[in-house]
Design goal:
mainly beta; 11 strands; globular; single chain; seven-stranded mixed beta sheet; four-stranded antiparallel beta sheet; 0% helix
């Protein structure tokens, strides 16, 4: 099992930058597929970025070129750097972990979740 605790986020004006961290405890994140999801108010939770156990990254089209997902296995921490933020990026952001072999499955394949961190972008 792995426990996830997010930090970072906050409020910023459009065009600004924010970063999120997700510190894991329990098992090492090197054995998991890790991802960031976001959920705007009244909408579904969607995957934003993903990094496989061997470091391959994928991004939602809406954030490509603006967001960067990374991880530090030694620190057991996942990161999300968000640049050129837009008001439509406003959401609760969650980090999540899935078994490595289920990396590209649906949201339901992610077993472990953080508590969420709010990101608000004003115009």
């Amino acid at each position: 099992q792995v426990q996830l605790v997010e930090s970072g986020g906050g409020s910023v004006q459009a065009g600004g930058s924010l970063s999120l961290s997700c510190e894991a405890s329990g098992n090492s994140i090197r054995f998991y597929c890790m991802a960031w999801f976001r959920q705007p108010p009244g909408r579904e939770r969607d995957r934003v970025a993903l990094i496989s156990s061997d470091g391959i990254t994928t991004y939602a089209d809406s954030v490509k070129g603006r967001f960067t997902i990374s991880k530090d296995n030694a620190k057991n921490t996942l990161y999300l750097q968000m640049n050129s933020l837009k008001p439509e990026d406003t959401a609760m952001y969650y980090c999540a972990a899935a078994a490595a072999w289920r990396c590209y499955g649906s949201t339901s394949t992610f077993t472990y979740w953080g508590q969420g961190s709010q990101v608000t972008v004003s115009s």
